[in-house]
Amino acid sequence: MPTLSMLYNTAIASAFVKILLFPCYRSTDFEVHRNWLAITHSLPLKEWYTSHISEWTLDYPPFFAWLEFTLSWIARLLGFDKAMLDPYNLNYVSTSTIVFQRSSVIVLELVLLYALCAYVRSMPARDQPNAILAAIDIFLSPALLIIDHIHFQYNGFLFGILMWSLVLAQKRETLLKSAALFAALLCFKHIYLYVAPAYFVFLLRTYCLSPSGYRIQFKNSIKLGATVIGIFLLAFGPWIYMGQMPQVFQRLFPFSRGLCHAYWAPNFWAMYAFADRVATFFLPRFGYSLPDAVNSALNGPTRGLVRDTVFTVLPNITPRLTFLITLFFQSLVLIKLFFRPTWRNFVGAVTLCGWLSYLFGWHVHEKAILIVIMPFGLLSLKDRRYLEAFRPLAVAGCISLFPLLFTPAEAPIKYLYTGLWVAILLKFNRAAPVPLKRQFLLTRVNLSYMAGFIPLLIYNGIVHRIVFGDRLEFLPLMLLSAYAAWGIFWSCISLIWLYFTDLD
């Protein structure tokens, strides 16, 4: 019988593993966060969002800037390398810097552990064993290991705040605390705006309107509004006072970037771009004339560069169109949440709002898949239908992050760790209860899809280089992104079906 001690022991064991990963590959994000430590420690407040000393300018909201400021002073007081706090030491790295920054990720991840423990305790006794398994699954996610502890970010800390907020949303008496935590989260990282519509509708229906009808509860509305506005003023107040909000928003929302990230996030637009590349290749062979096909391909989304995405055959996409598509599909999800504002529907709506933003959003990063995997993990062991819907997402989402670790030294880690995690995930069948009506999903189709990653990874890692050498260097990324996108898209359709047919 799973117990909370299993979760604690898992966290301790994983901490030792993460310490062993300290010497691993570090992405530019490592220098980004080191530079932010230096900026917030050494420059005056008015220069935090205006400094161009480094190309890695501060582009997270103010609470994260204050977190970096706090970490910088902890590093100084504990006697770590002071040179890392000099903003003019560009691309600076030392053993002391590595130890401090990687240790800070492990320590801040305790927020996620606390939130998962709170989630387990909030469940009825009969559901706690499954909740513990789900918590362990989330904490050990290869996506978190790859992005935070090798590539380098602080997602464990941030998603800990989100999970904690979701747990507090289960009870009416803690709804205001849930709202406050989520408002604070938005001031740490603005990507969580993806799921803000679900919070808005849920809090409106459960906190601002009467439980038995739609009568406005003015006292609650005022408390909620004052809490959220107060938190945002606390975060952005200094920059409002200094008149720097246009500069801050320009940093937070760089819409000048193209539709697809340098490495396509496996979403709908990856499939769209893939279809355009296939059409560009084959149509001229069937007699269709494409006057600018060569130039468009060179400047298009298959070169691995961050720039405007230009399609050769299919219509080009604008930021406004991506926003309208996302808003339309999110609205359908939110309608059900408004009329059936249960906690489980709320978690489902948070998951789907993040998912739809990921699928149809503008310039989505591949790392944003965490905003889908993490909350969906709370539902994954409700019954086998949810588990079956979760598996393709979890496998495709984690494997889609493999290109972030492109050095040979990390290959055994990402393959072996992810393989072990997937094997454990496939064993969860016995833990998840069988629904009364098994009317959903084809297990064998899901397993066949997940198995398809094996030959694809072999091709990308070995066969492509043998066949093409240094040519078509972006083809393996394109194939992996397009294939992962199909699984993520299918899994989203699966959860949408469950969300609208489940009577909860």
UniProtKB/TrEMBL annotation:
TM ranges are 99-119, 131-147, 181-202, 222-241, 321-339, 345-365, 412-429, 441-462, 474-500
Entry's Gene Ontology BP terms? dolichol-linked oligosaccharide biosynthetic process
Q: Which compartments does it reside in?
A: Endoplasmic reticulum membrane
UniProtKB keywords:
Endoplasmic reticulum, Glycosyltransferase, Membrane, Transferase, Transmembrane, Transmembrane helix
Q: Which residues form a coiled coil?
A: none
Reactions catalysed, semicolon-separated, are: an alpha-D-Glc-(1->3)-alpha-D-Man-(1->2)-alpha-D-Man-(1->2)-alpha-D-Man-(1->3)-[alpha-D-Man-(1->2)-alpha-D-Man-(1->3)-[alpha-D-Man-(1->2)-alpha-D-Man-(1->6)]-alpha-D-Man-(1->6)]-beta-D-Man-(1->4)-beta-D-GlcNAc-(1->4)-alpha-D-GlcNAc-diphospho-di-trans,poly-cis-dolichol + a di-trans,poly-cis-dolichyl beta-D-glucosyl phosphate = an alpha-D-Glc-(1->3)-alpha-D-Glc-(1->3)-alpha-D-Man-(1->2)-alpha-D-Man-(1->2)-alpha-D-Man-(1->3)-[alpha-D-Man-(1->2)-alpha-D-Man-(1->3)-[alpha-D-Man-(1->2)-alpha-D-Man-(1->6)]-alpha-D-Man-(1->6)]-beta-D-Man-(1->4)-beta-D-GlcNAc-(1->4)-alpha-D-GlcNAc-diphospho-di-trans,poly-cis-dolichol + a di-trans,poly-cis-dolichyl phosphate + H(+)
Pathway linked to the protein: Protein modification; protein glycosylation
Annotated membrane topology is: Multi-pass membrane protein
Main localization category: endoplasmic reticulum
Give a GO cellular-component term.
endoplasmic reticulum membrane
GO molecular function term, any single one: dolichyl pyrophosphate Glc1Man9GlcNAc2 alpha-1,3-glucosyltransferase activity
Which InterPro entries does the entry mention?
Glyco_trans_ALG6/ALG8 (IPR004856)
The EC number(s) attached to this protein equal: 2.4.1.-
The similarity annotation says: Belongs to the ALG6/ALG8 glucosyltransferase family.
Q: What is this protein called?
A: Alpha-1,3-glucosyltransferase
| GN (gene name) | alg8
